[in-house]
Every structure is written in C-alpha cells, then in structure tokens.
Amino acid sequence: MAGLDVRAHVTFGGCLAEGAEGRIARVILRGGEGGDFHDFAAIGNRVAGVAREPGAVSHR
Q1: pLDDT < 70 regions, the chain
Q2: CA-CA distance, 39 to 41, in Å (whole number)?
Q3: What would the pLDDT profile of 46-59 be if each residue is shown by its tens digit?
Q4: Which residues on neighbouring strands pair with residue 36, listed in sequence order?
Q5: In terms of Cα–Cα distance, which of 33, 28, 29 is closest to 18?
Q6: pTM, 2 dp
Q7: 22 vs 2, 12, 45, 54, CA distance in Å?
Q8: What is the pLDDT of residue 57?
Q9: Radius of gyration of the chain, Cα coordinates, nearest whole angstrom
Q10: Of the candidates 43, 51, 44, 49, the residue with the CA atom closest to the CA atom of residue 11
Q11: Would you state the pLDDT for residue 58?
C-alpha cells in the first residue's frame, strides 16, 4: 500500500446475503451468521474525517 499513498486504511463490514457464492460463504450462512453488517454511521464519520484532512479536496 506504500505505493498508493494510503494512510490509516479502514475496513468496514459488509453484507453476506443468502445466495452468496463460495464454500465458506455457504458454511457461514448455514450457521445462521449471515446478514447486513454495514455501519453507516462509522462510514460517514470516516468520510468526514478524511474530508477534513489537509489536501483532501482538490480544486481543479
């Protein structure tokens, strides 16, 4: 990631819905652990923080 100038990357939860492909996904779904794990408040807070960083907005 050094070549991409990435700083403090964050991974957010997503959604594992019925019909997802892949052996591991099927095992998780069979175990009743699927669902929507999006945390839109956390995503919004991260976006707001990135937007406040110096140089975040480029005026072209």
Answers
A1: 1-2, 57-60
A2: 6
A3: 999 988 888 776 65
A4: 15
A5: 29
A6: 0.61
A7: 31, 20, 32, 41
A8: 65
A9: 17
A10: 43
A11: 65
